[in-house]
Design brief:
With 154 residues, the protein is of the alpha+beta class. The chain has a domain of 95 residues: OB fold (Dihydrolipoamide Acetyltransferase, E2P), CATH 2.40.50.140. It contains 2 helices and 6 strands.
């Protein structure tokens, strides 16, 4: 049997990292994945797919991916069930991610993060930038460096 899933979408929120009682890392996240077709009004609809990733990849994802990050995920689809406090059986279908890949450069991701932070913090005054201090590592040396021409690489 084959159970392979490949998704590319944007994170709808920051991944939520937790640890099991025996110390295994687990991160949950939701991907918004656009459909390949448009609806009657010409808009692309998105599916919001719940995902989970385990161990070291979970920690890496939580450290590097934030809300809005374009993410590629490979894994498998899994269904599980549990009984809720009312005694009803609840079925959950989710993607168990095995690997992921950040699909945009760090610069693009930081720019998107900065833009969202700017809109969220427009009411906060920004402190003036600190003056840039450039130090010359040879400023303390008063003697000239005497090199023979044969020692120069050019």
């Amino acid at each position: 049997m084959i159970n392979n899933v490949v998704l590319v979408g944007r994170l709808t929120r920051d991944p939520e990292l937790k640890f099991t009682p025996n110390g295994a890392a687990v991160a949950t996240f939701t991907l918004a994945v656009n459909r390949n077709f448009t609806n009657q009004s010409g808009q692309r609809e998105a599916d919001f797919i719940n995902c989970v990733i385990w161990r070291k990849p979970a920690e890496t994802l939580a450290n590097y991916a934030k809300k809005g990050t374009l993410l590629g995920v490979t894994g498998r689809i899994q269904t599980r069930s549990y009984d809720n406090p009312q005694g009803q059986r609840v079925y959950v279908t989710e993607i168990v991610a095995e690997t992921f890949q950040l699909m945009e450069s760090k610069d693009v991701s930081e720019q998107r993060t900065n833009e969202s932070n700017e809109t969220a913090e427009k009411s906060k005054p920004t402190p003036p930038p600190l003056p840039k201090q450039e130090t010359d590592p040879f400023a303390q040396s008063s003697s000239a460096i005497d090199l023979p021409d044969d020692d120069l690489p050019f």
